[in-house]
Amino acid sequence: MDKMTNQKADASNRARPPHVTLRAFAWTGVLLASLIVAPTPGHAAERKLAFPVAGVIDKVMVRNGQTVKAGAPLATLDLVPLAALKEAADADLRAAQHKLTFATQNRNRAKQLFDDLSTSAEELERTEIALIQAVADTVRARANVDIAAWNLKRATLRAPSNGTVQSVPGFAGMVVNPAAAITPVVVLSSP
Length: 191
Hints:
By secondary structure, this protein is an alpha+beta fold. The protein has two domains: 2-72 and 159-190, no CATH class; 81-151, Helix Hairpins. Helices cover 44% and strands 26% of the residues. The strands form three sheets. A four-stranded antiparallel sheet has the order 3-10-8-5, with no helix packed on it. A hairpin with a 2-residue loop joins strand 1 and strand 2 (30-37). The longest helix has 37 residues, at 79-115. The relative contact order is 0.22. The model is unreliable at 1-40 (pLDDT under 50).
């Protein structure tokens, strides 16, 4: 009978596992993931918070036991490399837009010459291919600007909810790289 009671208790425990959700996002070959553990009755939810972008931690703004409100900054990455990447992406976009303007003008000129029977179909096709490539380069450059802006915006780790800081494994100078491993910077418990 004791064995039967243990089996029922084991079955009951298996029926109520802690709720764990793994959210993973693949973006340009980088896997970003966060682990969210739902609270069990009588216990606070514990969230291991990490940066979704790679970098070097510049400053940790919280300490163990500190109460924080939703949206409060917890830590920041060094902005210099992220801002430089954004600036470079902006410059690449401007260059791609100029090339697109030039390719459009060349294609229109070649089309007019072709219509006037002053150039070959091969020359017209070359300018059309150059225009298609310029459009693709501009789209790629615009995407790189968006990614750089997204990375820069996420260089500040913020509290997702009100809570109490349980531990701070992160420190200034720590290298974080979500592509290699999700390294918690702050562990926060929410009521």
